[in-house]
Amino acid sequence: MANSIIKRQLQIDSRIEELKTCLKVCYEMRDLLSLDCDTYFSFQTSLLEAVENAIVHGNKFDDSKKVKIGLTVEDSIIEVLIEDEGNGFDPECIADPTCGDNLTKENGRGIFFIKNLCDDFQVIGKGNIVKLIIRI
Fold first, then answer.
1. Whole-prediction pTM value?
2. Most buried in the list 8, 88, 104, 128, measured by CB within 10 Å?
3. Secondary structure class of 122 (helix, strand, coil)
4. CATH classification (class only), 6-135
């Protein structure tokens, strides 16, 4: 993959069904980059979770709002930027799903999974853009 750059841009509606479109991109990247199972799992799970968060929590299923996904592969790193049209969030205010009453909650684990699967996770600006970094 030396000195090779891959870029993909995608804009989807704020509907859960659009995760299928993202999954197709995951398959494409898996095959193009010959990702091993662990790396592919981290990439796919993180991407789908972050996009679902953008649809559900960011854009609140508002079909008039879009989710933008930018994917760049360079120097053995996959970088994904996911941007919604919501008000953003503060990652410091997200409850730890491994503590107390949070253990029994049905949701609230997405950011935890992303942080643990990616090599780097950043929340940018007002919190409506997240950056995922996965080393390949």
1. 0.92
2. 128
3. strand
4. alpha beta
